[in-house]
């Protein structure tokens, strides 16, 4: 499924959340880079576009962005079972499709939010692999983080079978 880009009106709303001065954005990125260079446990090779996405998702708060970057990369180190083996064609990921529907509505809401729906399909614990489901969701979220522009996310979780 292809996610539709924001309409011109939605994009205008999204752009309002960006710092009005592009130099300010560059300065914020430089500040984040400087901070990252002093964090030996965090990667120092994050490209500018990814840092811009993090900053945008943190409502342009450098301090909040530092906290989120810290958590984002620390959890990857602390829980490798969820971040290694990122092959979407692996058997356990493929099996997770029979247990959980996970879909993203193609259009943003009028306000510029993206809606994601999780729907439990099967409660048979023999088929249920939380690790595979979480890996699948995290892979999708990582792609969306880099490629998508939206103001926020709405997650709907339907556990009724």
From TrEMBL:
Domain of life: Eukaryota
Any one of the GO CC terms: membrane
SUPFAM superfamilies on file: CRAL/TRIO domain (SSF52087), CRAL/TRIO N-terminal domain (SSF46938)
Region (Disordered) location: 1-23
Residue ranges with Basic and acidic residues bias: 12-23
InterPro entries per record: CRAL-TRIO_dom_sf, CRAL/TRIO_N_dom_sf
Listed GO MF terms: phosphatidylinositol bisphosphate binding
Protein name, entry field: CRAL-TRIO domain-containing protein
Species whose genome carries this gene: Cardiocondyla obscurior
Lineage: Eukaryota, Metazoa, Ecdysozoa, Arthropoda, Hexapoda
């Amino acid at each position: 499924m292809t996610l539709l880009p924001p309409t011109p009106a939605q994009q205008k709303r999204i752009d309002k959340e960006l710092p009005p001065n592009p130099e300010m954005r560059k300065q914020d990125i430089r500040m984040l880079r400087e901070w990252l260079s002093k964090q030996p446990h965090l990667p120092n090779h994050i490209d500018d576009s990814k840092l811009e996405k993090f900053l945008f998702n943190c409502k342009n708060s450098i301090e909040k962005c530092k906290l989120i970057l810290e958590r984002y990369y620390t959890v990857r180190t602390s829980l490798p079972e969820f971040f290694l083996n990122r092959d979407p064609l692996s058997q356990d990921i493929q099996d997770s499709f029979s247990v959980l529907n996970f879909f993203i509505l193609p259009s943003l809401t009028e306000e510029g939010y993206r809606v994601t729906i999780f729907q439990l399909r099967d409660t048979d614990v023999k088929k249920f692999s939380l690790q595979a489901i979480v890996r699948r969701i995290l892979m999708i979220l990582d792609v969306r983080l880099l490629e998508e522009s939206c103001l926020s996310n709405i997650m709907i979780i339907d556990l009724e079978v």
